[in-house]
Amino acid sequence: MRIALVGGTGSFGRALAARLAAAGYDVVIGSRDAERAAAVGSELGVEGATNDDACRAADLVVLATKADAAVDTARELRPAIGETPVLSVAAELSFGPHGVVPTADARSVAARIQDVVDGPVVAGLHSLAAATLGEDEAPDEEALVCGDDAEAKALALELAGRLTAGRALDAGPLASARALEGLTAVIVNLNKRYRGRAGIRVTGVG
Ligand SMILES: NC(=O)c1ccc[n+]([C@@H]2O[C@H](COP(=O)([O-])OP(=O)(O)OC[C@H]3O[C@@H](n4cnc5c(N)ncnc54)[C@H](OP(=O)(O)O)[C@@H]3O)[C@@H](O)[C@H]2O)c1
């Protein structure tokens, strides 16, 4: 399966690329800059391309740009993405004196991405950190995915299951994305407060 990582030159995209390539996925790193994509791709042993070219041949598009660029980037890439499923990992956060909070937008980034692309959008992986994904061992935590399209969600859950030593769990419809995105703020605050690397483990199911 071919996975396009749009904005995959960032820390999260790089960590995903390395783990997914090791798991046997055909990975292409996308960037606004073809040279940067090629450089990062060759560093990680995967292909690099412009975001546009990366999306055209993909089975799943992961939007891994910085969070506040995700919706505009998806809108620009609409023709290249076509009907291909999209996985949104973005969590928009505000950093203030009392900690990190989700932005005030009532609608999730993922729902806003669904407004501007033709393929089904799922949201997930928000609670996995680039730093822990980048370690030798897969992180011992769970990955949550939500979405309305069963096939797209199954693809994302399969991919999520290859990233973590924990379970990949179906967290419901795309309307749950706002909660998953907001959870990132909680995790960042926990990391700051306890100088740790918080992950999520769900008890009582499965
Ligand atoms: N970091 C984590 O631990 C983590 C964990 C879970 C989820 N996430 C989510 O993963 C996504 C990426 O996180 P990150 O930390 O890797 O972000 P990042 O390093 O800040 O940015 C990723 C890439 O976004 C592209 N980019 C930057 N500005 C852009 C713009 N205006 N338009 C289009 N592309 C732009 C850049 O790629 P080019 O310049 O090469 O185009 C950059 O390398 C975010 O949505 C974040 O919420 C991150």
Describe the structure.
40% of the residues lie in helices and 20% in strands. It has 206 residues and is α/β, with parallel strands linked by helices. The strands form 2 sheets. It has an 8-stranded mixed beta sheet with strand order 3-2-1-4-5-8-9-10, with helices on both faces.
Distinct compounds present: NADP nicotinamide-adenine-dinucleotide phosphate
Shape: globular
Biggest pleated sheet: 8 strands, mixed
Low-confidence stretches: none
Strand order of the largest sheet: 3-2-1-4-5-8-9-10
Indicate the mean pLDDT: 97
Which structural category do the helix and sheet elements fall into? alpha/beta
- What order do the helices and strands follow? EHEHEHEHHEEEHEHEHEH
Helix content: 25-40%
- Helical stretch tally: 9
Distance between the termini: 27 Å
Write the layout of secondary structure elements.
Blueprint: E1 2-6, H1 11-22, E2 26-31, H2 34-44, E3 47-50, H3 51-56, E4 60-63, H4 70-76, H5 78-81, E5 86-88, E6 93-96, E7 99-102, H6 109-116, E8 121-124, H7 130-133, E9 143-147, H8 150-161, E10 168-170, H9 177-194
Parallel strand pairs: 1-2, 1-4, 2-3, 4-5, 5-8, 9-10
Antiparallel strand pairs: 6-7, 8-9
Helix pairs in contact: 4-6
Residues 7, 9-13, 31-33, 36, 64-67, 69-70, 73, 89-91, 125-126, 128-130 line the site of NADP nicotinamide-adenine-dinucleotide phosphate.
